[in-house]
Amino acid sequence: MESSVIAARISKLLETAPGFDRLPAEVRRRLLGEVFVRYFLPEEVILEQGSTAHEHLYIIESGSVRLTDRESGQLVDEYGEGDLFGNHGLINGGRLPFEARALEPAVCVLLGARDFRELYETHPEFAAFFNKELGGYEGEAGSRPDASSSRLLFGTTLGELVGRSPVVCAPGATAREVAQTMRAENADSVVVVEDGQVLGILSDIDLRNKIVAEGASFDTLVEELMLRDALRLDADEPVFQALMDMMQHQTYHVVVSEREGRRTRLLGVISDKDISRAQGHSPAFITERLGQTTSLQDLYGSRGETNKLLVRLERQGVKPKDLVTINTELNDHLMTRLIQLVEKELGDEHPELRVDLPWAWLSLGSEGRGEMSLLTDQDNALVYADPASEEEAARAEEWFGKLAWRANEVLAHAGFALCEGDIMARNPSLRQPASGWKKTFRDLITTPDADVLVWASVFFDLRGLYGDMELVEEVKDSILGSLDEARRFLPFMVQNALGNRPPLSFFRRFVLERSGEYRHTFNVKRRGLRPLVDAARVLSIQLGYLDSANTEDRLRHIAREIPDFKATAEDALDAYNYLTELRFMHHLRAIERGEKPNNQINPSDLNNTQQNVLKVVFATVQRVQEALARRFGLNARM
Question: Which CATH number fits domain 3-144: 2.60.120.10, 3.30.390.50, 3.90.1150.10, 3.30.420.40?
């Protein structure tokens, strides 16, 4: 790598690194001549516990580092890109109370002890940050959440994470006054309050974007700048919920309130940086980077980054069910960003081809259900508004055809494999105007074909991912209208749902592959999950439930709406969750070993308890299929 590239990366790192982001720009530029770069191998010890040689501050440019108390075995913290460590010894001296070890290949920028102390002594805001960090570390045991463990995400509430009273202002304050308050209070946001009511929030990002970048007056009132629709959560909510909401709403602050009888009291503000610094690594940071990345090539490694994050979170004790949720959210954000960039890139290259028609990218299959595993291919489609003329129709087909082909290829480069069955938007039959999609579903429902329905069932796992969601709802409304004529269609769907039997014999023994590469294994997706997914789909279609394609949502709706199926649906939900977690962890273990994930489970790899639970789960799948067959007057073992 050329030295100019290295210097640029270090410069960018210092601009955002905690503490260093408070230094004047000219000071950071001067530091470029003082720092140097070190590479550490996986499992390499960077700092020895008990050492009294405190020579550098370490800023992580890439990779991750774990801090551990080797004497007790307790995990102290886990740091990722942009985080720093080593400051405890530089400030406090004495024996280092933890070991720092690289979790994966790590590149660190090192600042010498003398230069660090000079900054610490001459820049109060820089020192204030490290004093705060030191105080947090040296607090009494048990007085703060274990920041690096899953307890932070799932066992710690937002109220526990709030570290200070909120900085507030009135809506009539000016931008200048608020900026001065934020500087004095060392805050990156203020809550706008009037008569005890929260009206909104204003962050330093808002001031930078709306005042500095646009050259607006510093006398502009806060009420003109604030975000009125601020994300607000109760203090009893887990940190995990805040992370998920931040990703979904693309915001970086949460206003936290506390209940006092019938009233609520403003407790404080949590930012994604607060969570990330406490946790060591944050899914919200990944989504933030995805949204800011403007190069397709820079996104191609994002799935690998997500996999590493999932492995780290699982090691910290995060439940598989929650890992699936995180994986789905991150994949949604990645795919959306890729499609956005493809649309922009194609429009810049061929502005003459672009058509001004609303359109939407549709996720189908496991993508549409929001149930993506770590082994998945593409199932997608494209819908656009009906053209007004034959000429516009021809132009629309050319434009959306090029868009779909490029998007499918880009998604493949990013780790979402091309579908072998060609269930992708580049297939002309899966790229249609709204009227075409309405006819496709109407024909499927009114004149069903068993051969077609084997793969067309994924159409009913429909979810709008990107674009004009009104088009998606228009297609769903049309499907709902056609379901009145579904008398012949549903039995075909039921037959499809009964086609895959769980791998359990009459004598409750596992039925396994007898030869080939996967000898002595069973396919957990085809023989376990798919029968439940198919059953939930067909019953939801019968009920006209199209609000969600998610299997859990479908099963809960079925339990509510079909009284004599309630117990079966609830058992099916438990079985589905168990098999989902089993499959996800099987994939995660393969990734840890550097292998490509598959769906083949060998029962001998499970302990006796797990095998017995799995037999109960497969017996439940059999009962679900039998109940489904009885409901439609069919033989479950056909």
Answer: 2.60.120.10
